[in-house]
Design goal:
single chain; about 325 residues; alpha+beta; Tumour Suppressor Smad4; 2 domains; seven-stranded antiparallel beta sheet; about 15% helix
């Protein structure tokens, strides 16, 4: 099953009038972009919203402050200015609200935030005019469960990570998929990632790059003790259970998109499945996933021949 990707909208379909801006304004580059974008949007007669937790002293007075928990409810478009971490944080704010998310990259890699600061205002005008692509991305929901009771639960756009709690101590754990035993692992942990997260931590663990339109989940062992313990790709419909094997002083913890979910012990199971809801991403015209890969992973270039796309310009 492929994730939904819509063709470019017509101008009459665009209805973005209340724009929420999210970013770490302590970063001077982010603050400059937020100021430029807020000024531009206000000049177009649009409403600009920010979290009431940010310092608005350098922003236009017409920018409205909204409680962060209500930011997505008050907006019809969420814009994340920063790196992919900012995108992941903004995605959490939009959960269950079907508010589309657009990313402006002021970070380093920017697999998710794909609008560059150069030409930012022109690209944003394209989006406001309805000239954009809409893409729905799979979310995971991770739960810590004990005797059938959910202790903690959190959504993830990128990945859920099980990792050892103490440096120098290997952990052992079992994986079960769809009620079937898969393997007993020894190592530093496991990354369970969406196709979106396949270019994040899972990639550094030797996992494959999965195109965002493919509804798949990858399980990538972290520093496995056995060389044959390789990444596995399963369908979105898979129910994944991870159980820690009881050993003296064995301790592990679970994070979801980098945020702590909780500790895992021998009496607690980590259950991971695809969430019923999805995150809606907007891309400007001409969005090309493979171009982003070439840019961020330095494909297609060498000291001898340079970058073919740049050479052709």
């Amino acid at each position: 099953m492929l994730q939904t990707r819509h063709a470019m909208n017509t101008p009459s379909q665009s209805a973005f009038t209340r724009i929420a801006l999210s970013g770490r304004l302590e970063d001077e580059r982010v603050a400059d972009s937020v100021l430029a974008l807020a000024t531009h949007l206000l000049a177009r007669g649009l409403t600009v919203l920010v979290s009431d937790l940010v310092d608005r002293s350098h922003l236009p007075s017409a920018v409205e402050a909204v409680p962060e928990s209500a930011l997505a409810d008050a907006a019809d478009l969420m814009v994340a200015i920063g790196g992919d971490g900012t995108m992941l944080y903004a995605a959490q704010l939009t959960l269950g609200r079907r508010v589309p998310l657009l990313g402006i990259n002021r970070g380093r890699l920017g697999f998710l935030a794909d609008v560059s600061p150069t030409g930012m205002l022109e690209r944003f005008d394209d989006v406001l005019a309805g000239r954009h692509e809409t893409e729905q991305r799979t979310l995971l929901v991770a739960s810590l469960e004990r005797h059938g009771q959910v202790l903690e639960s959190r959504h993830a756009l990128n990945d859920v990570v099980l990792q050892k709690h103490d440096t120098g101590r290997m952990i052992e754990f079992e994986t079960w998929i769809g009620g079937r035993y898969v393997n007993t692992h020894g190592g530093d942990g496991m990354v369970v990632a969406t196709s979106t997260g396949s270019t994040a931590y899972a990639l550094s663990c030797g996992g494959p790059i999965i195109h965002p339109e493919l509804d798949a989940i990858v399980l990538a062992p972290i520093c496995p003790h056995t060389l044959s313990d390789r990444p596995v790709v399963v369908s979105r419909n898979s129910n994944i259970v991870i159980r820690l094997i009881a050993r003296p002083a064995a301790r592990a913890q679970v994070t979801s998109d980098g945020l702590l979910l909780g500790d895992l012990d021998a009496d607690t199971h980590l259950v991971i499945r695809a969430a019923p809801e999805r995150i809606v991403l907007l891309h400007p015209p001409g969005h090309d996933y493979f171009r982003i890969l070439r840019s961020k992973l330095h494909w297609g270039r060498s000291a001898r021949n340079g970058d073919p796309e740049l050479d052709a310009c």
